[in-house]
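Quick question: what would this complex look like in 3D?
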Amino acid sequence: AQSVTQLDSQVPVFEEAPVELRCNYSSSVSVYLFWYVQYPNQGLQLLLKYLSGSTLVESINGFEAEFNKSQTSFHLRKPSVHISDTAEYFCAALSYGQNFVFGPGTRLSVLP
Amino acid sequence: DTEVTQTPKHLVMGMTNKKSLKCEQHMGHRAMYWYKQKAKKPPELMFVYSYEKLSINESVPSRFSPECPNSSLLNLHLHALQPEDSALYLCASSQDQSGAYSGNTIYFGEGSWLTVV
């Protein structure tokens, strides 16, 4: 069975500082990986995904994530955060024959 | 169009009421999902419909009754709920249920905030 771990439940960071949100997964088969963002009082929005090919994937709002098979990780990074990035971030994994598995989430708080 | 539409956005109901949550997608997806999300927690899977047939019921109490009238619509009928059922209910859809196809992303609606009083 697959599982997803997000080690940091909360990450406070000052505006314009870089940030990394960590995600590790376990799966015995090939896996697809996703990052979803949930702004306050809203549903989940897909931020970016890794399916195959280049291990570095980017979103339109400056986030990027790198798939590292040897470390079973899919960490999310942004070089300079904005107040508007304050949200809950969920890492998720999907493999053949399995349902989506979500990590517990990381609350990113961007401070002025 | 990657939109999943949920109505109503907010619902307050008494413990003896009967109400329904509705969900619609027009992406041609053949898998649709209901998730329940409590504050500061990840979404928890409740039901999965695959090709309009109930595929997964994650031991959800019978006071929650899903229905999939056609490939675009998904309902969640609510009856005799408890205050602890108050949560955000998220509908989602994907091309199909498993990861068999590349790009099988789950798309979520904005959710229905349910308060049981």
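Answer marked as accepted. The mean pLDDT of chain B is 91.
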